[in-house]
């Protein structure tokens, strides 16, 4: 007889995903501890996923920010909080949304964030060329939240750590998605965290 491990999974939509298709599965998969979040949402409407450990001794709070296209960032901001005066630049709006999602995260929980977003200055491809998209489509690393154990970033395929106020990284794609990635060492990121202490983060090659 198979005994389910009850390992939780939190999944956010990226720029190549269909939010409508993923959203249709949300309520069904929540019961299986597979938490799908397809659209940006306020903390109390799915924007923060609370996951207890399997032994019930610890709790993780995970702020989730699926991909927000530049043309839709104004609508996403409107969903988050009416008390903010939202700035005009895309990078500032992304930073404000993450601030809303992580507001109130304390020292008694494991505090994480998942965001599918471009970070200005991140490395692309197999070389060492930095990506600078200006202030239109990219977020600034220094504007990421500072009260988290770890920020898991999605969008770029190349694995890399990001210099930010909280520990942050692109784990990258687990498979080579074009010929330019043939020589790229694919990996996953393992984060071991407990409330009130810095997380241990290591890269595990695939």
Task: Name a few traits of the molecule.
about 210 residues; single chain; 5 helices; alpha/beta; about 25% strand; 6-stranded mixed beta sheet; 10 strands
Write the topology of this structure.
Elements: E1 9-12, H1 19-23, H2 26-30, E2 34-37, E3 48-52, E4 59-65, H3 73-80, H4 90-102, E5 110-116, H5 134-137, E6 150-154, E7 160-162, E8 168-170, E9 187-192, E10 200-205
Parallel strand pairs: 1-2, 4-5, 5-6, 6-8
Antiparallel strand pairs: 3-4, 7-8, 9-10
Describe the structure concisely:
By secondary structure, the protein is an alpha/beta fold.
Describe this entry's structure for a reader.
- This protein is an alpha/beta fold.
- It is 17% helix and 24% strand.
- The chain has five helices and ten strands, in the order E-H-H-E-E-E-H-H-E-H-E-E-E-E-E.
- It has helices spanning 19-23, 26-30, 73-80, 90-102, 134-137, and strands at 9-12, 34-37, 48-52, 59-65, 110-116, 150-154, 160-162, 168-170, 187-192, 200-205.
- Strands 3-4-5-6-8-7 form a six-stranded mixed beta sheet, covered by helices on one side. Strands 1-2 form a two-stranded parallel sheet. A two-stranded antiparallel sheet has the order 9-10.
- Helix 5 (134-137) links the parallel strand 5 (110-116) and strand 6.
- The protein is globular, with a radius of gyration of 17 Å.
- The mean pLDDT is 86.
